[in-house]
Specification:
It is a single chain. By secondary structure, this protein is α+β, with helices and mostly antiparallel strands. Helix content is 32%, strand content 27%. The chain is built from eight helices and 13 strands. A hairpin with a 2-residue loop joins strand 5 and strand 6.
Length: 314
């Protein structure tokens, strides 16, 4: 009797989880609005759906990247102004499977920090709007410059998405001090170009330049600070993370340099060295993460950022 009750509870729990997940995965076609459109605007094409096999027919040059990030299905539509047929907005809505993959593909397309105020995070310029919300990544392109219209359509789509997933927690781990806004990216494999690091996040930072360097850089139209990176690799458990750290050490021993200077202040499972292509690096393990800083010049500055990073990682 006990085992039977336990089995029933297990089945019911599974049904609840399935129901919650499936309730977020609304039919993509329903996200394409046919009503509540801006005045004098109509839907002239779509919704047209694509799957893993047919995505190449729609975005041949970018389909492989989407598939790496977990693409499931997409829908495409075109809106047009009644007053001017040349004035159109193309809309692509991609189901990426989960919020971390949706953020990931969004992070690869956003090239600077220009938030539009919709979705979990967004990018907006005169003719383009990008955002992600829950498991969905949305792209809008306007044939004419009209950011206000892009905002309207973006918010219209966002209001139809019921997925309440929060942004990936790892994004908040990155210290804000010296962080280049909008630079945090997620990679589903080969973080920093290393297979053994697998998936993870990378953020771009800029070292504070000396006064003399600032003046010279300003004369050249540059920022003056050297760019470096903080990164966070994710593994299934602490043992796998420790194994990856060993692979990293072996790789640096063969291709770069291992420093004899220790990182006791950061913990025992850590290493310091120099990558022949990416510069100086400090890496350590914390739980099922490997986190580090790479490409820096100022040792003290890099250590400070790494300390902040460690404190934030839970």
């Amino acid at each position: 009797m006990y085992h039977r009750k336990l089995m029933i509870l297990f089945i019911l729990a599974g049904i609840v989880v399935w129901f919650e997940a499936s309730s977020w995965a609304v039919p993509l076609e329903s996200l394409i609005s046919k009503e509540n459109l801006p005045e004098d605007w109509i839907l002239i094409h779509g919704p047209q759906t694509y799957n893993k096999k047919t995505l190449f027919e729609h975005i041949n040059g970018q389909a492989e990247l989407f598939l790496k990030y977990g693409f499931q299905k997409s829908v495409f539509a075109i809106y047009q102004s009644k007053k001017n047929r040349e004035d159109q907005i193309e809309m692509d809505i991609y189901d990426m499977g989960n919020v971390i993959q949706a953020f990931g593909i969004f992070s690869r397309f956003r090239n600077e920090d220009r938030p539009g105020g919709f979705g979990l995070d967004s990018f907006l310029d005169d003719q383009t709007a990008l955002f992600y919300k829950g498991r969905y990544f949305i792209m809008l392109y306007a044939s004419e410059s009209n950011p206000d219209l892009l905002i309207y359509f973006s918010k219209l789509v966002s209001s139809k998405i019921s997925d309440t997933s929060l942004p990936p927690k790892e994004v908040k781990y990155f210290p804000k001090n010296e962080l280049k806004p909008g630079s945090i990216q997620y990679f589903p494999e080969g973080l920093l170009g290393h297979k053994f690091l697998k998936r993870g996040f990378r953020g771009n930072y800029t070292e504070e330049a000396e006064v003399k360097d600032k003046v010279e850089a300003k004369d050249r139209g540059e920022t003056g600070g050297k760019e470096f990176h903080l990164f966070l690799a994710i593994f299934k458990d602490s043992q796998e993370a420790m194994n990856a750290l060993k692979f990293y050490k072996d790789d640096l021993s063969k291709k770069g340099k291992i420093s004899s200077e220790n990182l006791i202040q950061f913990g025992t499972s850590a290493l310091r060295g120099e990558d022949p292509y990416q510069g100086k690096v400090m890496v350590l393990q914390k739980g099922f993460y490997l986190l580090g800083v790479i490409g820096f010049e100022k040792k003290e500055n890099a250590e400070n950022r790494l300390k902040e990073f460690i404190e934030k990682v839970k």
